[in-house]
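=== Structure Prediction Worksheet ===
Name of assembly: unnamed complex
Input type: mixed (protein and possibly other molecules)
Chain count: two
Listed entries:
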Amino acid sequence: MSAIIHGAGAATALSTFNSVDSKKLVAPSRTNLPVRTQKYIVARSDASKKNIGSGLRVRHSQKLIANAVATKEAETSASTGHELLLFEALQEGLEEEMDRDPHVCVMGEDVGHYGGSYKVTKGLADKFGDLRVLDTPICENAFTGMGIGAAMTGLRPVIEGMNMGFLLLAFNQISNNCGMLHYTSGGQFTIPVVIRGPGGVGRQLGAEHSQRLESYFQSIPGIQMVACSTPYNAKGLMKAAIRSENPVILFEHVLLYNLKEKIPDEEYICNLEEAEMVRPGEHITILTYSRMRYHVMQAAKTLVNKGYDPEVIDIRSLKPFDLYTIGNSVKKTHRVLIVEECMRTGGIGASLTAAINENFHDYLDAPVMCLSSQDVPTPYAGTLEEWTVVQPAQIVTAVEQLCK
Amino acid sequence: MATAFSPAKLTVTLPLHGSHQENRLLLPIRLPPPSSSFLGSTRSLTIHSSRRLNYSNATRRSPVVGVQEVVKEKKASNTLLITKEEGLVLYEDMILGRSFEDMCAQMYYRGKMFGFVHLYNGQEAVSTGFIKLLTKSDSVVSTYRDHVHALSKGVSARAVMSELFGKVTGCCRGQGGSMHMFSKEHNMLGGFAFIGEGIPVATGAAFSSKYRREVLKKDCEDVTVAFFGDGTCNNGQFYECLNMAALWKLPIIFVVENNLWAIGMSHLRATSDPEIWKKGPAFGMPGVHVDGMDVLKVREVAKEAVNRARRGEGPTLVECETYRFRGHSLADPDELRDAAEKAKYAARDPITALKKYLIENKLANEADLKSIEKKIDELVEEAVEFADASPQPGRSQLLENVFADPKGFGIGPDGRYRCEDPKFTEGTAQV
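=== Predicted Assembly ===
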C-alpha cells in the first residue's frame, strides 16, 4: 500500500511540531487526498443503491472476480521499502522519535536490559542509556504517575504496561491525572504521554492476561485511544502518538507482534484520528480494529466467493471515532456490521453503534449489528477461548443475515 | 511491627538492621493512649540511613544530627537562626496563610465558594519552613489542603481567591477549584483530591530534574517537595514512590504533615507503627522527625534536606508533627477531637511562637509585625474584591483545555475536525 494514502490529514497535526522536515514526511493534508490506485476488481451490481426491497443477491452472471484483500501495488513503484515484523516496526518508530527528540524516554518493567517482554524496546537501552529507557520496579500506579509528573515538567515519556491488563493498577493515575490534569489546571500543564502495551486475547494466556480493556478506558475524558493492526500503522501511530500533545493510549495485540509487512523507507506518520480503509466495497460496511481485522479479512474471502462485496474499515482510532470515513461508508452501503474483540457490555462496539445510530440513522437499511466477544473472563481451555472471541464463520453468517 | 504501646516491644523491631548506630535510637518511647498528646517532641532523634542496602548504596549515610540538638546548641551559643529580613519574610508568609484561610472560611459561609474546602490553620510552619527555601523553578506538589502551599510558592492571593470563587481569573481559570491549585509559572504542580495521587507526580518531576541533568546535560538543581498527610502514609503509592526515589536518588523531599487525624480517623488507630519517619530508613533514605509547630526547626531540617537533594544525594523523608486548628474541611463538624488536645496545640501556635522569637531576640518590634499584619489584611481584602469583581467563565470555556491538541475530539460526520466547528468555540458543540 502506498505510503501517501495513509498519512492523510497530518498537515494540521504537523504544524505543532517545531523541527519537522516537511520534505521528508509523506503526509499530505486531508483536503487533497489523492485517489487510491489500488488494483482490484469490484463486483458491480447493475442496479443502483436503491435495492431495498429486492435484497442484494449477487448476480452470478456478472464478472465477480474480486480480491478479498486489496492487492499491493506492483513492486516497480518508486519507494523500495523494507520488510519487518510488527514489533520491529514499533521499535523503529520509537527509536526514530527518540533520536529526533531527546525528551522522549521510555519507562516500564523490563524495557531496558531485557529489551521488553515483546522485544519492542530491544537494543534501546544500549543505545540511549538506562535513564532514557528506564527499568522500573513493579509498581504500575506509581511509575505511571511518575511518567505523568515527568510529562508535566517537560519530558515525553512512553509508558509501557507489560500487559495492558496491568494498567488496571494504574487506573487512578490514568483516569485522574493523565486525563484530567490539562483541564483542571486550566490548560497550564500538558501531559504528552504515550501509554502502550499488548492486550487482547492471546493463546491460552488465562483470564487476567487476556483482557480487552478498550472499554474501560474509553470514557475517560481527555485521552485518545488508538489501536494498531499492521506494521505500517503500528509505526505510524507510534510516531504520531509520541508527537501528540495529548495523552494517547496505544493498544497493541499480543498475537499481532509477528506480522510481517513491507513498510516505506522514508519517514511517515499516521493520523491519530483517522480510520483506515482496508477494502472498499458496496454491500456492507464492516467496522473493526486490531486483531479482528484479520478475522474479518478471512471472512471477506469467503464472502467474496459467495458473491458479497464487503467494505472493510479498520477504525484505528477508538476514541474519538472517525465519523467521516465511517459515515461515508454507511452512506454508500447502508448496512453496518461491527466486529470487535472488546466485551459486549459498554464496549467500543456499543459506543460505535450509538454514534452511528445517532448520526446516520437515515442512511441505514438494517439495524447496526455488533459482534463482540462474550462477556466472560477469557477461559484457559483452547476450545472455550476460541468461542469467546468472534470467529470468521460468525462474521460470514452475520453478513449474510444483514444482507438478506 | 509493634502492636502494643510498650517500649520493650519497640526495641525489638529495629535491630533487624544490625548496627550500633540504630541502637542509640532506642530510647524508651512512650506511646500514649489515643486521645492525648502526640509523642513527646523533646526527644532527640538521630537521622540515619539503613545499612541493609546493595553495594551501590552502601556509602549513603546522612551526616545530619538530631535537629533539636542543633537548635539547642545554637541558642546556647547566642547565634540566631535567622536574620531580621528572613524573619520578617517568614512571619509575613505565615500571616498570609492564616489570614487567607480565615477569609476563606468567611467567604464559604457567605456562599461565595462551594464544595470541599480544606483549611490549613495551624500548619503554616511546615509550608513556610520548606517553601521559603525553594527557588521559583523548584516544584511543589500538595494535596487538597493546598491553598497555603500555593501562596507560599508565590501564586498571588488574587489568583487563588478567584479560583476558589470559580472565576475566570483564577489560577486554573476556575476549572480546578479549592483542591486543584496549579501554577506553571510558579511550578506548583497541584492540588490533588485523592490522597497519595500527587506523590508519583512529584516523583516524576524529580525524575525530570535528574533527567535534565544527566541526559540533557543541562545545569539543573531543581528539587521537588511533596506534601501529604499522615493518612497517606498507609497508602501504597507512598511506598512505591519512596522505593523509586531512593533507588534512583531522585531530588525529592517527602514531607509528611502529620496532624494526627485523617478526617475522623486517628493516626494511632490506623497505623501499625505510627512513627512515620522510621519508614524512610526502611527504603534507604534518612527519616527525620521534627516539631512542625516551630517554623525555625522545620526550616533547619528543610535546609539540610533540600541541600542534600540539590547535591544529588537523594531523597529525604521528613515527618512534621503538626496540627490543624479547624476541622478536616469546612463541612466537618470536628466533634471527635478532644478539646484538651486542641488546646494543647493552640498554645503552640506557630505564628505566636515566631512572633515571640522575633521580639525576644530583638529581630523585630511590635510595630513591624503589626504593619505586616495590616498589609496582609489589606492584601486579602483586595483579593476578595478582585475575585468578586471577576467574571464567571463563559460557555465557550467548557470544551477548551480538555485536550492540549483539540483535534483529540476527532473528526465529525462532515469531514471537519470537531474543534473546527464554530459551535465548539461557543461550547455548544456535541463532542
